Amino acid sequence: MNHANPNPILTFALNGETVSVPAHPGQRISEVLREKLGARDVKIGCNAGDCGACTILVDGAPVCACLMAAHQAEGRSVETLAGLQKTDGDAQSLKQRFQDHGAAQCGICTPGMMVTAVALLRKNPTPSVQDTQDALGGVLCRCTGYRKILDAVTDVPALAKQGDGETGTSIPRLDGDAKVTGRERFGDDVAPAGCLEILVIRSPFPRATFALGDLDAFVASTGLETVLTATDVPGDNLFGVIPDFIDQPVFAEKEVRFRGEAIAAVIGTPDRIAAFDPATFPVSWTEGTAVQNPTEACATGADEVHQGRRDNVMCGGLVTCGNPDDALATAAITVTGRFQTGFVEHAYIEPEAGFAQMNGDRIELHTCTQAPGMNLESLERILGVPRAKIRIVPTSVGGGFGSKLDLTVQPFLALGTMKTGQPVRLCYTRTESMQSSTKRHPADITLKIGADENGKLQGFDFRGDFDTGAYASWGPTVANRVPVHASGPYAVADYRAVSRGIHTNNPPSGAFRGFGVPQSAIAQESLFDELAAKLHMDPLEFRILNALDNGEPTVCGQVFEQGVGIKACLEALRPAWTTERAAADTFNAQNATLKRGVGLAAGWYGCGNTSLPNPSTIKCGLGPDGRITLHQGAMDIGQGSNTVITQIFATELGVPVADITLLGADTDITPDAGKTSASRQTFVSGNAAQLSAAALRAQILAKINVSPDAALSFEDGKIIARDNAGEHALDVAALPVDKDGYVLQATSTYDPPIKPLDANGQGSPYAQFGYAAHLAVVEVDTALGTVKPLKFVAAHDVGHAINPMLVEGQVHGGIAQGLGMALMEEYLPGRTENLHDYLIPTFGDIPPIETIIIEEEDAHGPFGAKGLGEHVLIPTAPALLNAIKHATGRRITQVPATPYRVRSAILGGEA
Amino acid sequence: MTFIQSTELAETLEYLRSHKAVVLAGGTDVFPAMKQGQRPGSIVSLARVAGLRGISQDDHGFRIGAATTWSDIVASDLPPAFDALKAAAREVGGQQIQNVGTIAGNLCNASPAADGVPPLLALGAQVELASAARGTRVVDLSNFITGVRQTDLAEDEIVTAVLIPNPPDGMASAFEKLGSRRYLVISICMTAANVLLDDQGRIAKAHIAVGACSAVAQRLPTLEAAIIGARPTDAPVDPSHLADLSPIDDVRGSAAFRMDAVQEQIRRAIIRAGGA
After folding, report:
1. Residue A811's domain spans which residues?
2. pLDDT (tens digit, 9 = 90+) per residue, A861-903?
3. Which of A286, A563, B67, B150 shows the greatest Cβ crowding within 10 Å of its Cβ?
4. Are the Cβ atoms of B96 and A52 closer than 8 angstroms?
């Protein structure tokens, strides 16, 4: 009988070459490919067949490598992206097409997408949109909104053009090649195979006390290397992101406050860790009664999640101006509503992962992060070592959206390598990632808005409670941002917005694209439609009438004399608004069950930290060979900062982007460009890059002694300057070289001009806002409650589009996330801790999106540019809810608007 | 741990006679169910067992080998009565899952929301089982799945085929699935309808099965009887026909919503199967 595999050697063809490798019986082929054959182009997103990131071709057919036993591949042909890129014409063509459309953003899903697309193109060289969606429907993407991938696979004409990369031009991503060839290294891709692994022990209960058993005996009996607990933390066993709210332990000490909280970690060889059953860990639990939601948390007598935070209120925010009570009392029309949203999971396809090692007495940490500088500050405190002893080398980041600002794997890795003295690695499972990472805050909002008989806003009273979960994370930021933004981009003279962050025994809520503003926009933009209806006004004209303009104060009393682009955004939607409303009316007259609706919503978002300093520093150098090096520390998490900041820098310096070598991010070699958050990188780091380029250019011009408008060109070892006086050369190679190896260098910092907010929230919280308006067309199946978006038109004021293709990429991705939040996404602790119970949009859920770029230049932006990353999802959900109302006559006030909720609303029950 | 990968059915069954093992076909349910640190003692792979994959037909009906994948079913030339099964096959995960996931695996996993079950119930499918100790036996699919994640399969036994009687000439079918997104979605509820019309365009025969509205997907005999003689567009579907269903409240929807939605779904499935 040939059944048993006495020899565990497995032989198959990997990318055309025969390989023989030992494998454990039942080992997943994904693991064998990545850890034994070096095929780290096979990405693991879920280990459950839910995301498709690990797609390989087996005898030409796409399969999930995570679901295949290695020995089932015996004698068969296995192909991965890296191999296909060497030999396969379809793969090579797709590589260019993905680059030409910006179809890879973070790049973590890209290998799975491209491998699946190769299988499609082999069978069908000219696939239709439907063919492509059906073929690629098994691969999830969280960044792109899928449409650019669709364009690449169906080979529509390229958006990008090769060129010098001057701002305003769509060059392909400068860091894109690694993403489309499988060479990109993410958090779990840098550790050497076989190094020690960490497994975190977590609470199965939302609230409990616990006692650890005899850990020495446990380690001795299991063959594990060691165990980490709170006693192994040399510094403070605490982390957080807001100075006054550093409240989360690395390892809980006696009490846990949410399901999934870490209490310990075991470290061992890969085999030991694979065989380790967490149920054998010596701990005894005493389950407590969890505070499940803000209503319970604020009830009289509720247990305090954190002692001393009374009524479980973490903190609050307030912005008020004028006299909202009087204004509402005398308003001709008022509307009120209560709106609720749930936890939303970031669901990046790359789980948190990293690798750490000691380099002498220094700790070197490679991890996927949005905030290397903040990681450094936190680790300094936790590890109790000076920051000079810590180096953070960010890997590529497979999606972040706010959650990879916080510490996750970092302290475990650093403590693990410090304690063992050996390299260690850690990659969260999907369930672990979902249980323990931060979430979008659930919101419970009541809002009253008034207007006079002409439709001018008169009075606005907003109250929002946000479930901030067990620890503060970015909850204070949400509490501060929401009152500043809850008016939307409108002129409101009499305004009050009060927010509170409430602790519960839920997962910590933190930063998620928009910091609470997408939630408040649902309330405000929904009620604007109700107000317009009561006024018998067109919803678009009502918004235009009330839209903020240059010279008008915001609700914080801040006056922008320029750059307020919301009217232009709204007016850009007018043609589509007119034709789509008419088309929907025609459709609805002919259909009884399917009903179409058209809705719109607007949004604004302040770029940078709220009334707090947030400098970025960018360094550049000129080498003796005449090459320019840009030390670019602004984390590119897929949004494109590597490209955009280089374009800004190159334009200011007056050279093509091809002349520039990019370095970083790496805390040893790049100055701190701040966190990738708050839509600040294009604006703040972009400004620093522009200043840095200007400083270097000035030095060069001074050396050559030419006029400021001289054109520079960089040739081998020489710089040529041309001006009216003729041509001048600088022999770069002859200049002295500094300690960094440069003959000239410049480092510049930019910090946006802001002013603090007073007790009423009056001040100048941001140096610039970006503006947006979305139009959504939906088709509702009124008998089943399903909502099918058919089209979006999205107008965004970005000041100046540094790279219009990347702008479109952000808009598409934001709409996809906004759509998910509106229609399907709700994280329920303990119930939706995987990517088949927690639903994010798939390839078939995102309709065509028309992006309209508005450029109301901003005086503070680099070349007039504004931030964009978060603006893109703020109007999406309310635009969809307004479209559902138009289609069905029913107002959905709780998201997600699942079929159940929509159908219930249609039947007249609770929505 | 042992990994058994025989090409012979007899050898495979002989091993299972004396060993407790996890039976692995496409792996699409086995691997996600594996828990940290809990490795099975033995795995028996059916991937290479001769004769387990493919579809054949004779006078008695169709025989779909246990290891036939959903992609195999989509690619097969089958009569219109199998259209619902093909439609369901396209909804079992993405193509990555359909390329390896097997028809028998879907049955043995016994999820209340298994996409393959309602169409097979509507086709009157039976399940062929084999063991070394007792040879071959055949049970009705409706008796094979006994509860949530429970089947009539013995530990030493595997499914060898799904048997489907030849459907009447002219029988057509349709599959309706309700979920919150387009692809990769676990059904809120689903319906398969196989309908044969008489020459007046009235329903002569109907097999209706509903999934995700009870612990085990159900045929609805009361409804099937009630709509005989009706035109598909007028087929009466009312709550009294759905007494066999017992949906639950879960993250995907409430019981009441499922009962409401499934009635509409049944109407649509009947109309589509009736050729409208």
Report:
1. 439-609+759-906
2. 999 999 999 999 999 999 999 999 999 999 999 999 999 999 9
3. B67
4. yes
Q: How many domains does one find in chain A?
A: 4
Domain final position from A701, A733, A750: A750
As a whole number of angstroms, the distance between CA A899 and CA A785 comes to 4
Residues A285 and A353 in one domain: yes
- Residue-wise pLDDT tens digits, B185-240: 999 999 999 999 999 999 999 999 999 999 999 999 999 999 999 999 999 999 99
Q: A68 and B24: CB-CB below 8 Å? A: no
Residues A646 and A674 in one domain: yes
Residue A716 pLDDT = 80
Contacts with A25 from chain B: Cβ below 8 Å: 1-3, 43
User: What amino acid is encoded at B252 in this protein?
Assistant: R
Q: Residue A903: its chain B contacts at CB < 8 A?
A: 257, 260-261
Q: Do A26 and B27 touch (CB under 8 A)?
A: no
Question: CATH code at B253?
Answer: 3.30.390.50
> How many Cβ pairs within 8 Å bridge chains A and B?
182
Q: Are strands B42-45 and B22-24 parallel, antiparallel or unpaired?
A: parallel
Residue B191 lies in a domain: yes
Residue B119: what pLDDT?
A: 98
Q: What is the mean pLDDT of residues A645-650?
A: 98
In the numeric block, which tokens belong to residue A740? 């960094």
Binning pLDDT at 50, 70 and 90, where does residue A630 land?
A: very high
Q: Is the pLDDT of residue B41 over 90?
A: no
Residues making up chain A, counted from first to last: 911
Is residue A704 domain-shared with residue A661, that is, in the same domain?
A: yes
Q: What is the distance in angstroms between the Cα of B22 and the nearest Cα belonging to chain A?
A: 10
Report the amino acid identity of residue A49.
G
Q: For B250-265, write each residue's pLDDT tens digit.
A: 999 999 999 999 999 9
Asked whether residue A308 is assigned to any structural domain, the reply reads no
Mutate to test the interface with A, among B34, B96, B258 (most CBs of A within 10 A): B96
- What band does A909 get if pLDDT is binned at 50, 70 and 90? low
Shortest CA gap A119–chain B (Å)? 11
Asked if the structure places residue A472 within a domain, the reply is yes
Does residue A604 sit in the same domain as residue A622?
Answer: no
Cα A105 from Cα A398, distance rounded (Å):
9
In a domain, A524, yes or no: yes
Distance in Å, alpha carbon of A105 to nearest chain B alpha carbon: 22
Query: Does an H or E element contain A477, and which?
Result: helix A475-485
Q: Are B203 and B259 within one domain? A: yes
Give chain B's domain count. Answer: 2
Cα-trace Rg, chain B: 19
Within-domain flag for B17: no
Convert the pLDDT of each residue in A64-115 to its tens digit: 999 999 999 999 999 999 999 999 999 999 999 999 999 999 999 999 999 9
Are the beta carbons of B186 and A836 separated by less than 8 Å?
yes
Q: Is the peptide bond before A896 cis (omega within 30 degrees of 0)?
A: yes
Task: List the CATH number of the domain containing A803.
Answer: 3.30.365.10
Give the pLDDT mean for A308-320: 96
Structural domain containing residue B231: 178-273
- Check CB contact under 8 Å for A63 and B100: yes
- The answer to whether A429 contacts B96, with C-beta atoms less than 8 Å apart, is no
Which domain CATH number covers A106? Answer: 3.10.20.30
Angstrom distance (rounded) from CA A334 to CA A527: 10
pLDDT at residue number A750: 98
Q: Which of B9, B12, B181, B185 to mutate to test the interface with A (most CBs of A within 10 A)?
A: B181
Reduce the DSSP state of residue B224 to 3 states and report it.
Answer: helix
Residue B136 maps to which CATH number? 3.30.465.10
| Cross-chain Cβ contact A898/B253 below 8 Å | yes
SS3 A338: strand
**For residue B40, which residues of chain A lie inside 8 Å, CB to CB?**
26
Same domain, B131 and B190: no
For residues A369 and A674, is the Cβ–Cβ distance under 8 A?
Answer: no
Q: What is the pLDDT of residue A911?
A: 42
CA distances from A895 to A428, A774, B188 (A): 29, 18, 18
B37/A276 CB distance under 8 A: yes
Q: Are residues B55 and B153 in the same domain?
A: yes
Is residue B269 in some structural domain?
Answer: yes
> Do A93 and A143 lie in a common domain?
yes
